[in-house]
Amino acid sequence: RSSWLLLAPLLTPPVPVITAPPCSLCPEGAHRFQWIRNLVPEFGISSSHVKVLSSPAEFYELLKVQIKAAKQRVVMASLYLGTGLLEQELVYCLEETLEKSLQAKGSPDLRVSILLDYTRGSRGRKNSRTMLIPLLQRFPEQVRVSLFHTPNLRGLLRLLIPERFNETIGLQHIKVYLFDDNVILSGANLSDLYFTNRQDRYVLLRDSPEIADFFTELVDAIGDVSLQLQQDDTVQMMEGMVHPYQGDKGAYCEIANRRVMEVINSARTRQELLHAKTFHSSQPGSSLLSQQGSQASGSLKPEPDTWIYPLIQMKPFGIQIDEMVTETLLTEAERDARIFLTTGYFNLTQAYMDLILGTRAEYRILLASPEVNGFFGAKGVAGAIPAAYVYIEHQFFSEVCYLQQQERVQLQEYSRPGWTFHAKGLWLYLAGTDLPCLTLIGSPNFGYRSVHRDLEAQVAIVTENKALQQQLHQEQEQLYLCSSVVSTSTFEQPNRYVKLWVKLVTPLIKNFF
Predict the structure, then answer these.
(1) What Gene Ontology terms for biological process does this UniProt record contain (predicted)?
(2) Sign of CA pseudo-dihedral 53, 55, 58, 61
(3) pLDDT category, 457, cuts 50, 70, 90?
(4) CA dihedral in degrees (241, 245, 248, 253; nearest 10)?
(5) Which among 147, 294, 380, 468 has the fewest CB atoms less than 10 Å away?
(6) DSSP E strand boundaries for 210-347
(7) Which segments within 470-513 are labelled E, that is strand?
(8) Among candidates 377, 338, 155, 90, which has minimal Cα distance to 385?
(9) Secondary structure string (H, E, C) spanning 115-127
(10) Contact yes or no for 194/200 (Cβ under 8 A)
């Protein structure tokens, strides 16, 4: 594909952007990625509000602390909630916090909204639903549990495909956990593996009310077009809402698109107005004077040196912002720029592969070795999935070698005894720099499923702050430290043997995992 085609949607932004002369306080022009705000809201914050976490245990402890401290809202979107003791402790934390809110004077302020996938959350007799029903029964006015059901699983297909396999058609894959004005973005689900020995990525955005409001509204919008869990473990749609698999598919997807785009566009308008009000006062100098006055009184927030852009991908609803931004980032990466890209499931779309192989930047791609693949040792057909990933990896490596790109595009395999690997995202280092200025973090895996089937969200974090850049660099280094470079000899090892039937089947099913 031509890079101009990729950039075409950006050349005609959906609404006019504010154009005003730059000023000393205005972040406009401060970084080269501000074209992203033509598509999504831009949230300027201080880097002191951003903390990068490194371990599953740290992530789990932070979840518990944040739940217990919440006063106004707890919003959690995940693929599923596990059924073990660690997950039960999270539910107990929610129950305890809701109880305190109930006992407070006046009407309880705390609201809990949980969004999960219907098929994954309903798997087995004991599942995400049975874990959460006690909360619904005890706090019916304060708790909402929404279960997203893909509109693509319907009719005869829905009747014939068995449990677990029905999850291949499409999922709610967004992972965001927010507590009052604190937001955790991650690729991790709410399950004991992700709290103990499955490596992922996690970033905390503290005291960020506008970002928290955005993701609250986004989860509410998806929740509104999802099935609502009832106290008796039945589900029903909100009154007047088209059903995802019984109603008209086109009408359902149109409503879902409208609800989600309303959230994106209204937040974008709000942020543009805030930007104009803060940095572009109609009277010259008044903005600067008012800010200096506020600074003297200690009421002004620190000048932003970090910008957050939420990137949403919901192809079933015709929303493909994340795909567009990711392709443009890869297209525009300059010679000698370095991109560190990681995914737990290496199954890149053809467009991403073409861009990696056909552009100028250096790539270091981190992926799971077979032993740390989440499907390693699984029963039945799923047990062959790591071999399918090996086959896909080998094909890509062979293409790299054929094009003589081994120096520019390098594959590295994550390996750590007793652990599995689930980290995803990228870090971008501009040419001549030692620290990243941009990272993508969230739920997408850069594969066919993420682009075409599932509901996904991540954020682009752009920062000029050296301390935050150092945090991101250390995060990248820590992950890559547990890896070894892939070479021709890698695929000669006995554990890389791929059976013929797997080679034959993989091209037919690679778009489903």
Answers:
(1) cardiolipin biosynthetic process
(2) positive
(3) very high
(4) 70
(5) 380
(6) 227-229, 235-236, 306-314, 319-320, 338-343
(7) 483-485
(8) 377
(9) EEEHHHHCCCCCC
(10) yes
Query: Coil, strand or helix: which one is 442?
Result: strand
Tokens of 204: 């905390």
Instruction: Give 483's pLDDT tier (boundaries 50, 70, 90).
Output: very high
Q: Which two tokens stand for residue 129?
A: 């639903």
The two three-digit tokens of residue 181, written as one number: 């004005």
Active site residue ranges? 173, 175, 180
In this model, does residue 436 exceed pLDDT 80? yes
Position 409 pLDDT exceeds 70: yes
User: Which residues have C-beta within 8 Å of that of residue 118, sequence separation ≥ 6?
Assistant: 147, 148, 149, 172, 226, 227, 235
- Going by C-alpha positions, the residue among 38, 56, 91 that lies closest to residue 418 is 56
Residue 105 confidence (pLDDT) = 67
The residue assigned the tokens 């590295």 is: 412
Residues 6+ positions from 196 with CB-CB distance below 8 Å: 56, 57, 60, 86
- Does pLDDT of 80 surpass 90? yes
pTM: 0.90
End-to-end CA, the chain:
24
The count of residues in the chain is 513
**Which CATH architecture best describes the domain 46-269?**
2-Layer Sandwich (3.30)
Q: How far is CA 346 from the centre of its chain?
A: 16
Mean pLDDT, residues 489-513 taken together: 90
Residues 6+ apart with CB under 8 A from 174: 77, 78, 115, 218, 219, 222, 442, 443, 455, 456, 457
Every domain of the chain and the residues it spans = 30-43+304-510, 46-269
- Phi/psi for 143 (5° steps) reads -115, 135
Please check whether the two domains, 30-43+304-510 and 46-269, share a CATH topology: yes
SS3 485: strand
pLDDT at 280: 59
Residue 226: the pLDDT is 98
